[in-house]
Design goal:
This protein is mainly alpha-helical. It is 89% helix and 0% strand. It is rod-shaped.
Length: 85
């Protein structure tokens, strides 16, 4: 047989304590989520920076490759004109 407390002030105080405890847990969870989101933002920014650097490197290699191809092509044309005429 359970003891039933019927005093409205005690019931209200118990409900408030329960809600306060639940709110504390929710606040802790929200704090963890905010921390996780900040870590995700940092990770995404790092990935963006890395991709931008790789894109710049890719463009640099492309330009260098084009310059080498033009120079090599000029050397080949000069060689063909000199040796096959």
């Amino acid at each position: 047989m359970e003891l039933q407390i019927t005093d409205p002030e005690i019931v209200t105080a118990r409900e408030l304590a329960t809600h306060a405890n639940e709110l504390k847990h929710l606040q802790d969870d929200m704090d963890k989520l905010v921390k996780d989101v900040e870590e995700l933002k940092t990770g995404v920014n790092d990935i963006r920076r890395m991709l931008a650097e790789q894109q710049a490197e890719k463009k640099t290699y492309h330009y260098v490759g084009n310059i080498i191809a033009v120079l090599f092509g000029g050397v080949l044309v000069a060689a063909f004109e000199k040796f096959w005429r």
